[in-house]
Amino acid sequence: MLNKEEIKKIIPQREPFLMIDEVEDYKPGESCVAYKNVDQNEGYFKGHFPGNPIMPGVLIVESLAQAGAIAILSMKENKGKNALFGGIDKMKFKKMVIPGDRLKLEVKIIKRKGPIGIGEAVATVDEKIVAKGELTFAVV
């Protein structure tokens, strides 16, 4: 289990854009299981949407990307580097994420060639899929 301070030693994101609260398990270059505790005090809830707060889909995708970055940037040869979006494919949103939810983020690296790779990403709340798709990344 990694806490926020340990996560910051692997990926470069910082508050307020660090979208992972803890990592349950990870295998460098292979996979990551992480969590985001969706707090009602998140700044984006003020405008998305007043009286009906919903976590924006793009931030769910960013949370998944950061989990994937844990898997890739924890590799010894990628220490100190960054993982950037190269593409998003087949992303589907199945359920709303609201304050109080605990978002489980699972990413499996399914392809790598040089600095480019693809991660199969699934976000769940209470074992129900809220989003899933493929994320392409580039390590720089």
Short summary:
The protein is of the alpha+beta class. The protein is 16% helix and 41% strand. The chain has a single domain (4-139), classed as Hotdog Thioesterase (Thiol Ester Dehydrase, Chain A, Roll).
Task: Describe the protein in words.
- By secondary structure, this protein is an alpha+beta fold.
- The chain has 2 helices and 6 strands, in the order αββαββββ.
- A 6-stranded antiparallel sheet has the order 1-2-4-5-6-3, covered by helices on one side.
Count of spatially separate domains: 1
> What summary fits the major beta sheet?
6 strands, antiparallel
- CATH H-level name... which superfamily? Hotdog Thioesterase
Strand order of the largest sheet: 1-2-4-5-6-3
Q: What gyration radius follows from the Cα positions, in whole Å?
A: 14 Å
Task: Compute the average pLDDT.
Answer: 97
The CATH architecture would be: Roll
Structural class: alpha+beta
Percent of residues in helical segments?
A: 10-25%
Strand content: 35-45%
- The CATH class, by name, is Alpha Beta
Sequence stretches where pLDDT stays below 50 over 5 or more residues: none
C-alpha geometry: globular
Q: Could you please say which CATH topology applies here?
A: Thiol Ester Dehydrase, Chain A
Q: Distance between termini?
A: 26 Å
Count every helix, treating DSSP H or I runs of 4 or more residues as helices.
2
Question: How is the topology of this model organized?
Answer:
Elements: H1 4-8, E1 22-27, E2 31-37, H2 57-73, E3 83-93, E4 102-113, E5 116-125, E6 128-139
Antiparallel strand pairs: 1-2, 2-4, 3-6, 4-5, 5-6
